[in-house]
Design brief:
By secondary structure, the chain is of the alpha+beta class. 53% of the residues lie in helices and 19% in strands. The protein folds into two domains: 181 residues, no CATH class; 180 residues, no CATH class. Strands 1, 3, 4, 5, 6, 7, 8, 9, 11 and 12 form a ten-stranded mixed beta sheet that branches. Strands 2-10 form a two-stranded antiparallel ribbon. It is elongated, with a radius of gyration of 30 Å. The chain starts with a helix and ends in an 11-residue tail after the last helix.
Length: 374
């Protein structure tokens, strides 16, 4: 009994899982690189999804409004058809608790540039009031009815310079600054008066932005006056649903494909390494190694490959993100701690699932394998 116990403990002192993987370093490197590509794809897709979500709510995140007064039936900011009397601004400003109120007109337009149709979100605001560009990369914000600020990605991709003219809806505007872009479309900022002329509606606006320290109370008071009022989080959530609906399914499917590839690579790597050295495993089993110990060998080898793949995938991701930023700057890839945690969890889950096949093979391995040739 004592002899059996000693032989049973012997394998535990030998780093068999690590030694067998390192016996063929080229295979380990190839496996880690393949798993790394899968992890990179997961990180890139997660980062791209984070970037899409962040870009969709760029306006709500930066404009500083706590409440949005809109036409009844309006449920989101982008692409919504909202028209309310411009006199609503004065009504809102008179409400107790309102720090500021500013009209903003917004609508979608198509800009023709170099025989291409470019979607853009037109934002018309009152200069000197909230609602306009919060960031000017070059130049300045528009001041007159003939001036605009365009997204910097649009300016760079189409070589549009400050001082040049750009035609919108049959009217020419002078570019005086570059501002913010989103994932799917660029912002074009102009004065509210300019949008009045474009649409021929000088006594209306789309939204009234409201700044307040008491949003719940002010909202209730404005709603009692017959106005439709939404808070920032409601508009942002609905914009996300509308603008990202088409991307959720394909991104989710690509994540699943990357996860499946990682599982197959790890399983194949561990299984092949085990088959190449099955005589050693037969010796270990003949020496009294338990079934659980053999199963743990498969799991440890899978975890080693997954860990190496996670490190490689992180490095691949950093390189891939840099390439995307240089080639397609409108695609923002945002890496968060939650993204890293999900990728690490995916790598561990890959290892757990991938270890099932080689673990079953080890469990069925006969001790007589140690005495066979080949």
């Amino acid at each position: 009994m004592a002899t059996r116990s000693a032989s049973h403990n012997m394998p535990g002192r030998v780093p068999l899982a690590r030694r067998n993987l390192l016996a063929d370093p080229r295979r380990l490197v190839a496996s880690a690189a393949a798993v790394g590509l899968a992890i990179m794809l997961i990180l890139l897709l997660d980062g791209l999804w984070n970037g899409i979500n962040r870009s969709v709510t760029t306006y709500e995140d930066n404009v500083g409004a706590d409440l949005y007064v809109a036409q009844p039936g309006t449920h989101n900011f982008f692409g919504a058809v909202s028209q309310i009397p411009l006199s609503s601004v004065d009504l809102v400003r008179k409400q107790p608790g309102v720090n500021w109120a500013s009209p903003v007109r917004t609508f979608l337009a198509i800009v023709s540039l170099h025989d291409r149709k470019i979607p853009a979100s037109i934002i018309g605001w009152m200069p000197g009031q909230p609602g306009g560009p919060w960031e000017i990369s070059k130049g300045r914000a528009p001041r007159t009815k003939n001036e605009i600020a365009i997204g910097r990605v649009m300016a760079n991709r189409h070589n549009l310079q400050i001082g040049e003219s750009l035609e919108l809806m049959g009217r020419k505007f002078q570019i005086v600054g570059t501002s913010t872009d989103t994932f799917m479309l660029s912002f074009i900022f102009m004065t509210h008066a300019a949008t009045d002329q474009l649409l021929g509606a000088s006594d209306t606006t789309s939204f009234v932005l409201v700044g307040t320290n008491r949003p719940a109370e002010v909202r209730a008071e404005l709603a009692a006056s017959g106005l439709a009022v939404h808070n920032r989080d409601e508009f942002a959530a609905r914009d996300l649903v509308v603008m990202t609906r088409a991307y959720a399914l394909p991104i989710g499917m690509m994540r699943g494909v990357a996860f499946a590839i990682g599982i197959l690579v790890i399983a194949l790597s561990v299984y092949t390494a085990m088959m190449d050295r099955r005589r050693e495993y037969g010796i270990v089993k003949a020496m009294g190694a338990s079934r659980n110990y053999l199963l743990s060998l498969a799991l440890r080898q899978s975890l080693i490959v997954a860990a190496a793949g996670f490190i490689a995938g992180t490095l691949f991701f950093l390189g891939g993100r840099a390439i995307i930023a240089a080639v397609r700057p409108q695609f923002t890839v945002v890496l968060t701690s939650a993204s890293i945690a999900r990728a690490l969890g995916a790598a561990i889950l890959m290892a757990l699932v991938a270890s099932l096949i080689p673990a079953r093979r080890l469990a069925r391995l006969e001790p007589a394998t140690a005495y066979r040739g080949g």
